[in-house]
Structures are given as structure tokens and as C-alpha cells.
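Handout, section 4.2: multi-component inputs.
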Amino acid sequence: MRYKAVTSVPKRWVEGLATALITLISWVALGALGGVVAFLLYKGAGVLSWAFFTDLPRRGMQSGGIGPALVGSIYVTLVAIGVGSLVATAAGAYMSEFATSRRIVRFLEFLINTLAGIPSVVYGLFGLALFVVALGLGASILAGGLTLALLSLPLLVRNAQEAFGAVPKALKEASIGLGASELQTFFRITLPIALPRILTGLALATGRVLGETAPILFTAAVYYLPTYPKGLLEPTMLLPYHLYVLVTSGVDIRQTYPMAFGTALTLLGLTLAFTGLAAYLRFRLKRHYRV
Amino acid sequence: MSLIDTEIAKLRARAYQVVQNVRQQLVFLEEQVRRGDWARLRTIEELRAGALEEDMRLDRRCARILALHQPVANDLRFVLAVLRMHFYLDEVAERLVAVGRRLAEYMPHLPKAAYQDIPMAELVTRVARLLDTCLEAFFQSDTEKAKQIDQEDQEVDETYERCVHQIIQALTTPLSPAEAAAWMEMAIAVKTLEKIADYAIDIADASIYYTEGIYYWHRFLRRERQP
Amino acid sequence: MYKLETRAVSVWYGNYQALKGVSLALERNQVLALIGPSGCGKSTFLRLFNRMNDFIEGFRLEGEVLIDGENIYAPQVDPVHLRRRVGMVFQKPTPFPFSIYENVAYGLRLQNRLPESQIRERVEHALRQAALWEEVRDNLKKSALMLSGGQQQRLCIARALAVRPSLLLMDEPTSALDPISTAKIEELIHELRQHYTIVIVTHNMQQAARVSDMTAFFYMGQLIEYGRTKDFFTNPQHPETIRYITGRFG
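Output:
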């Protein structure tokens, strides 16, 4: 209130206009997002049913469901996030808590930033060369999952490092001062306090991994399989690739369109669910973490 | 109890101890004067010497509280009042020794019959009572008592006047040089006792200062009243 | 034997010398206050006694630091063990985001497994010693973060006391607290003196005067003057000390 009193009239007028513009633009952006969701719902909601999620694709993918692709995606994501979270948490902990040299940490940060900038298709190629061919895993859930784990590592490591770094130093010192070893301090203080933030990062990464297409193209995905995946070393159908197939290479593309929209809607729903989970965790974090 | 409370309580206890030492001197003087035991009166110096250590400790404790605890408001006034009281008590104690010494030295030169009518013992008693009242007022923070000591003060003055009057009368009779000197010394002793009463009143004033925060220049005002 | 003793202790951080040949000794059950301007080395000196400086890059020490006559920088001394014998309270209250009970029990759970009944006993005892028990006895399960700043600091004191140290280090324990909480902590320090030896760093000279038995004045890494607090504040010897404690510094 005090500030308004000293602001001259024309400035206030400009301010009002600017505020209105910003509001308008953000509503347009939100409207576009809402439009996408509405469009997908309009086109794809019709095919959604329990059977759609569980059934095999039938009649040249013109009917039936996306069961194998959905399950395949879940498997691959579980592998990716499972491996990625462990490696990233360890790496983040090392960089934030245990590394004794600042120089090493800076070098690692540089590497991670570089990794984050690499296009995802390059990860796919790398996964093909390393996991599929060199390690002999073949195109499989494991190879795809590991490739996606690699892809998500920069994000996850960064997130974990920041999460550990955000734990107040005073708390760690207090713990050390009470006679805790560094490892005890990490497991009893630093990790529990950083956990909500780490989980938030994991949820965001999960959403992203689910939707990635390029890295799994060469490492895990197949065009069509009439069965559910049976093991980690089996190739599988996957949602993003399945969508691509439905849209570009069906026998009769017009007939597969409803299925494509249903698949897209499913993917969007999953991604939004994980983003929502992240938002919820962040909310919880804000309420409980007040040190 | 807060730290400053503890410190103030300790200071109060120490001040009380110093007061007791001075009162002991006064009681001793009173007793010997009443009995006419002048030889014994000389030992009043030992009483005083024995109390010096506690005297210094009171000073040090005041300095310590001021330096270490930075008292303010009523706490500050109490410490300042104790310092004032301590100064007056010191004067009282010194004068008691002086009186004792004089009387012990010169009274044996006079025949008992010559001075037995002089109300010197009464004067000492009245001074002692006045000092007690003032100290009570101080330690009980009783400002009413402190303000109403005029009555006792006047009694001291009256007794003092009577003593002086009789001593002057005695001086008008034919006396040997030693006797004349003894009477003169007695006059000085009596005057000193009266002075002690003034210090007692100063102590009462100090108590008013620390309880009410006003400078109550009782003695000064009274002097104004009776030029 | 002295509770604490340093013999010609010098400390370097890289090329910077933080302490220059400090020798000092403290009797058991005394409160030692360390005063001096910022950067004078008093915090470094305090943190010698639980080896918290070990974590600082480039830390190097010369001389001897003894607790109960034992050199705590001897190679066979495990700093983790040492810290269990030396409690520390920091500038800002640092309660862990656990319950009040778990905060106090934290140090106990790090050590040999105690039965829960014994832990409960020690938690209560520590909270009583820290004059916090009456305020929290019905809320032990509540989050420590719900306490007020002053209560949090007393909780941290209780947490440090629970592991039964014989020496308590306090690094400006009241600088983040209001005057009433400060007075409570000061009273507490006064009482704790009966069972503990306490070293306290404070920016507040009056606080040093109020709570300590001994005072040490540091300036530019040197121990300028060390003596009984009552003498220190009534009759300081060194001109630098006089200028500092009379507020005529710089």
C-alpha cells in the first residue's frame, strides 16, 4: 500500500496494462494446454474401456487394446527409474556430501550438464551399441530400461545433489557434534530430510521417461507382439512407439486413428499423474520441511 | 530465580553482615559506657579491625555486580543505595572507635561522681535506637519508617543538648588541667555521637532513594528548617 | 589435573593462521567465556575441543589440546568417540525434524543399544536438566519444530546433555534468541555448571560477565588476556582488553 501511494498515475496505468497483458498471455498458454487435453479427450475417450487397457491389439491394430504396450512401458519405466534412482542418489550424495575436493565436484557437474544436453536419439544409439550389442542383452526391457536410466541420470543426479545440498549444514553439524559418524549422519539426518525432494525429482523423471520414444526405438520396442512381455530380456511393445506405429504405419491409418488417440490419452494421463504426484510431494515438502 | 536476583540477594546478605558488625560495636560501646568500664572500652578497636575484611568484601561485591551484571532500575538503585549506606556505616564505625578511644583514654581522669549525672549512656542508647530504626527501614524497604524518624532524631538532639549543657556547667567549676582536658574530650565524644545520628538518617534517606527512586534529602531539609 | 588445557596451540587454515600459540587451562565445573571481535579465533578455539575444525579444508594444528589430561589430537583418538564426550550447542537452534523425544534420544541411539526404558529415563533427565521438561512433558511426540526458538535451543542443550558429556561447548547459544529466552539459557548455564565444565563463545560481553567464571579475550588469533571473570571486568590488565571491554575498540 505504501508503494502505491508514491507511484505516479501514468505509471500505474502502464502497470495495469502490463498486468492485463501478462494475464492474457498466460491464459492463452493454459488454454492451448487445455485445448490439447480437450481435443484428445474428444477424439480418444470413446475407445477407453477396461478392455482397451488390457486386451491385445487385434485386426491389424484397428481394434482390441494396448495391453502389452502399457505393461511394457511400465516395466521399462520401472527398470529405468529403479536403476536411475539408485545410481543418481548415490552420485548426488557423493557430490554433495562425501566428495573431498571441490574440483572433482565441478568436473562431475560439467559432465552432467553436457549429458543433459545430448539429444535423446543419441542415447538410443548408445544404448543399442552398449546394452543391446556389446553386453548382448538384445532388444529387451532391460536394455531399454537401462538406456532410459542413462537418459534420466543427469536430471536425477542434479536433483539428488540439490536435495542433499538443501539440508541445512547446521543440522549435519549438530549430528556430527552429537557423536554421529559421517555415514550415520547421512542415513539418519541428511537422507530422510532430503527424501521428499528426491522423490519429487523421481516422479518428474518418471513422467518424462514414460513418454520418451527415441531411446527405446532401437533398444526395446517392437512393432507388434501378440503377447504380454514375459521377462526382462524380452523385447516388448511400448506406448510411445505404439502410438507412432498407429499413426504412421497401420494397414489402414484412418481405421487406427481412434486407437491412436486412446493411446495418446493414456500416455498423457500417465504423465500427468506423475507430474501431479511430484506436485503433491512438493506440497508435502513445503508443509513439513521447515528447518 | 534469575541471576540478578541471586546476586542482589547475596549482596543484601553481605550488607546485612556489615551492618551487624557496626551494631555490635555500638552495643559494645553502650554497655561499657553504662557500666563505666573504660579499660574494656579500649578493645572496641579490635572489634573494628575484625570487621574490616567483610567491609572490603561488600565493596568488592558491589563493584562485581555493577561490572558483571549491569543492574538497572530498582536493582541499580539498590546497589547504589548499598554503596551509600556502606559509606555512612564506615563513617559511623570509625567514629565509634574514636569515641571509644577518647572515653577510654580520658574518663579515668575524672571521679565517677563528677559525671554520673551526665546522660551519656542515654545518648548512646538513643543513637543506637535511631540507627536501628534507620537500618530496619533500609532492609525492610520501609519508606514510612524512614520518613518518620524525626521523633527519634529529636530525642537524640535533646539528650545531646542536655549532655553539652552539663559539660559546660562542669567546665565552669575549678578544675585541674587533666580534668579540664577530660571534660573537653567528653564534649567532643558527645558531639561525635550526635554526628553518628546524622549518618543514621542518611542511611534512611538512601533507603527511600532505592525503594522510591527519589532523592529524599531529609537531613538537608531539616537543617534548612532549623538554622 | 585441569579439565581443559591447551599448550601453545596454533591453527592454520591453508596459509591463514587462525590461532597463534594459545595456552590456557580450565578447572573442572567452571564456565569459560571466550570473547573478542569477529574473526579473532574464538570459534576456532572452541571447535578444537570436539574437533569440529577437522572438516575444514586445509586445517592444520600445532601444539596440544588436552581434555582430562589426554591429548585429543593424538593419532589413536577417534574424533567420533571424542564428540560423544563433548556436547555442543550451536548458534542457531538446530532441532532435527523429528519429535521432541527422538531429538533428545538421537545421540543415545547412535551408541550401544540401550533398552527403550533406559532411553526414556535419560531423555526425561536431560529435558529436566535443560529446564524444558515441564513445558514439553505432555508433547514429547510432537515435532520439535513446533517449539519456540528459546525452547528449541533448550532442546538442543538437552540433546547434548543426553549423551552425558563432561564438557559442554556453546557457540553463541543465545545470539538468535529474544532477551527472555536468553535470560533462561543464562540461568541454565549457571545451574549446569554444577555438573559440567562449559566453554561458551559469545559476542555479548555482558553475557560473558554474567555467566562465566573465567574469561578469555582473543584478538587476531592471540589470547590477549585470560583470568577470573570478576577480575577481568573490574581490573583488566592488557590495554587491548580495556579498550575492547569498554567499547573503545577500533
